[in-house]
UniProtKB/TrEMBL annotation:
It catalyses: 2'-deoxyribonucleotide-(2'-deoxyribose 5'-phosphate)-2'-deoxyribonucleotide-DNA = a 3'-end 2'-deoxyribonucleotide-(2,3-dehydro-2,3-deoxyribose 5'-phosphate)-DNA + a 5'-end 5'-phospho-2'-deoxyribonucleoside-DNA + H(+). This is DNA-(apurinic or apyrimidinic site) lyase. The keyword Cell inner membrane does not apply. Its EC number is 4.2.99.18. It comes from Nocardioides deserti. Residues 238-272 form the FPG-type domain.
Length: 280
DNA sequence: CTGCAATGCTAAG
DNA sequence: TTAGCCTTGCAGG
């Protein structure tokens, strides 16, 4: 679901399904109808993601900017015989002119038609994205090393780093044994580099599989003889939404707290406090 | 069935 | 700091 890997995966799916084809663009729900008419019947040139932002490019330098927010969804279907009637509130529907593929957007926070300049503004405001090969982790490091804000907040700040959401945040902090409230300025550069390198691998895997898996092989359900996780996000994780359950590595009870309105999860033993008085 | 929380973010107050 | 977006899956009655 919508952390950066989801948007990059969608960009690939959209490009595969529609690039180079004439596409009918509509808004069964109506809220995107006016903009849709401006690109309806144009050639879709490709789709690209930066962090959690998706841009679908049409002939004439016009882009549909999509942000899924918390529960938005974009379903891409290819190789269909027939395009079904829309179900629910479909904000935007793309249909290949030959009718063999369609995509439905629902519940998105943002769906707007923008110029190349407007797209560039979004990209410029974003921090480096671990999924993009052109990303420069030093840009993020320069923000982190100068900030007394908790690393748990910095990782979710899309102007510091683009694409990391609540699951990757919790999990990468766990994997690097960092307490979420530790100030950014107390990290060593080597720690940041290791964290970044890990995100590059984890998130690329997320693009490939469409889910967030962060446990190492020795902690997999098979290796540990435990049942696989079964809930809506599907992947195998160490601490995300596991509060009150035993840590897979040390057995301590996973803890939770709220930081800036978002749920934090961490293991008090594997992610020791950075100071004696910090939250445990 | 009803209610609520959720991988996010913006704008209003 | 809070409401809103308006979907989905789960818990509880």
């Amino acid at each position: 679901m919508p952390e950066g890997h989801t948007l990059h995966r969608l960009a690939l799916e959209l490009t595969d399904a529609f690039a180079g084809s004439v596409v009918r663009v509509g808004s069964p729900q109506g809220r995107f109808a006016e903009s849709a008419s401006l690109v309806d019947g144009q050639v879709l040139e490709g789709a690209e993601a930066w962090g959690k932002h998706l841009f679908i490019g049409f002939a004439g330098e016009r882009f549909v900017h999509v942000h899924l927010g918390l529960y938005g969804k974009l379903d891409v279907r290819t190789g269909v015989e027939e395009v079904p009637d829309p179900v629910g509130q479909v904000r935007m529907r793309l249909v290949r002119a030959d009718g063999t593929a369609y995509a439905d957007l629902r519940g998105a926070t943002t769906c707007e038609l923008v110029t190349a300049e407007q797209r560039d503004l979004v990209v410029e405001r974003s921090g480096p994205d671990p999924i993009r090969p052109d990303a420069d982790p030093d840009r993020a490091w320069q923000r982190i090393r100068r900030s007394r804000a908790p690393i748990g907040g910095l990782l979710m700040d899309q102007t510091v780093l683009a694409g990391v959401g609540n699951v990757y945040r919790a999990e990468v902090l766990y994997r690097h044994r960092m307490h979420p409230l530790r100030p950014g300025s107390t990290l060593r550069q080597s720690q940041w580099q290791a964290t970044w390198d890990d995100l590059v691998v984890l998130m690329a895997e997320g693009v490939r599989t469409g889910r967030i898996d962060t446990v190492r092989p020795e902690h997999s359900p098979e290796a540990m003889g435990r049942p696989p996780r079964k809930d809506d996000h599907g992947g195998e994780v160490y601490v995300y939404r596991r509060h009150g359950q035993p840590c897979l590595v040390c057995g301590a009870k996973v803890r939770t707290d709220v930081l800036q309105g978002r749920n934090l999860f961490w293991c008090p033993r594997c992610q020791p406090t950075f100071r004696s008085r910090a939250v445990q």
